[in-house]
Amino acid sequence: xxxxxxxxxxxxxxxxxxxxxxxxxxxxxxxxxxxxxxxxxxxxxxxxxxxxxxxxxxxxxxxxxxxxxxxxxxxxxxxxxxxxxxxxxxxxxxxxxxxxxxxxxxxxxxxxxxxxxxxxxxxxxxxxxxxxxxxxxxxxxxxxxxxxxxxxxxx
Length: 155
What we know:
There is one protein chain. The protein is of the alpha+beta class. It contains four helices and six strands. It has helices at residues 7-13, 63-85, 124-137, 139-144; strands at residues 27-30, 35-39, 45-48, 94-103, 109-118, 149-154. The strands form two sheets. A three-stranded antiparallel sheet has the order 1-2-3, with no helix packed on it. A three-stranded mixed sheet has the order 4-5-6, with helices on one face. The N and C termini lie far apart (40 Å).
């Protein structure tokens, strides 16, 4: 008797670690959440501040905004890649990310992510398949899978 593996089965058993490192990004934090961050190539030089919701002055970006920007860009690129592999042009598509932070049960803090994907030129069934495939390809999705809650909504 043979069984077909579902996408969920594959993601639960697949080793998603890279087999070859193709690029390394480097950044340094100075002063934590009330300081600044820089990248080794000088492209990032940003003030970091606690958001008002966490008791800060909000006079800078914060790690959650940077994570949201990185995840949305990475997921969108994965989406375009799987679309291209399927022979589709995903012009006009967008991915927006919300990253929440709050206390967890282990006396630390945890994150939750909500991705909102817009594929205006693709029917809902195909869009859902593309999003599922992108979720398997995206390095952020692979890194966060089973570690934080990630919800994906098609709009």
